[in-house]
Amino acid sequence: MTPAGLAPLGEITVIDALSGRSGTNRSRAGNRQLAADTDQQAVMAWLARFADSPNTLANARREAERLLLWALIERDKPLSSLTHEDLLIYRRFLANPQPADRWVMAPGRKAGRRDSRWRPFAGPLSEASIRQSMVVLNSMMSWLVEAGYLAGNPLSLSRTRRKAPPPRIVRFLEADLWDAIRQTILTLPQETPRQRASYARARWLFSLMFLGGLRISEVVHNIMGDFFMRSDPKTGAQRWWLQATGKGDKARLIPATAELMVELMNYRRSLELSALPQPAEPSPLVFPVAWRRSTHPAPAWPEPLTRSAIHVILKEIFARAAEQWRRDGRGDAQAQKLAAASAHWLRHTAGSNLSNQIDLKHVRDTLGHVSIATTSIYLHGEDDARHAAVSGAHRMRWDAVGDAPAASSPGQ
């Protein structure tokens, strides 16, 4: 464990009394369906269900890890001895994890989960995040009961049914905030080779995530070779696409607009690569800032950046934009919104921009809310109509930053 007494799930070492073998909530009914003998093993068995969904796995592991560590360190009991009262206390703990030096990560670059500086929290959780955490933990407890490991689910006593508020997207960037983000990127320093590389990468990453509506996991797990060109069977027009595999291993076609392809070519040239990727090229969508073809002879491609690394790049830009917003005296509330933005805010911003201008079914298919069939001739025609609609309406407009919105140009 770290000096704070913490270790990642799967590597936590405890005395036998805290292992869960004798947990007061362990099932004695004889209907056990797990080989797990300790709480940590049981939680790992639950997490194994999400092996094919990296994003879900990461979220579930984080919540289980936090609860298990809290039970051991703050309550001095195994997870399988937690009571309803314990979990009420844990819920309050999520809103203010104390002592902070034990539980909260120091400001700055995130430490890896095996680093002595690692902590389970970045800070207090919002009410929405607390609710989501309890939903995940309730699912875990219910599964452990069903598997015959726990006798009962102490969280089930806390469940209340409330009328759900009307759904609305609030985590997106309005036009003036989105303009501030682009302005921040355009004014990044470019005096040294590393600064120019950082600028090129930031500009490409934001273009890719906004124009493509990609999730952060999709940026990590898809490759340059997923870009391809095909002909419209009716007009013969050549169009570029990005074949993305996303949530739930569902594939979708994302229109690679002319603007996105220009940004791709500029970014690849900055890496000293050919302007366009080769078919099935296994290179990552985003490269480490120090990588250049001249120093890495073919076919040596870098490993893709991690989710955390992409997150850090995005947050640094959001923080810069927020700081400039405050320096300009434009109000603290909007600056706080810029500072709070994340990768998914870009996706919501893209969806909001598109839904105001084109048919919602095109937005649905571009953002991957449902699966698509690329071999169907009928859907192929629908895809080409979608490409034209997205290309005409969804723009980055790097050349118009700071100006009044320009009229949309016709689709290609």
UniProtKB/TrEMBL annotation:
Domain Tyr recombinase: 168-392
Organism: Roseateles puraquae
Annotated Core-binding (CB) domain residues: 37-145
Organism superkingdom: Bacteria
DNA-binding keyword on record: yes
Pfam family, one: Phage_integrase
Family per record: Belongs to the 'phage' integrase family.
UniProt entry keywords in alphabetical sequence: DNA integration, DNA recombination, DNA-binding
UniProt name for this protein: Integrase
Molecular function per GO: DNA binding
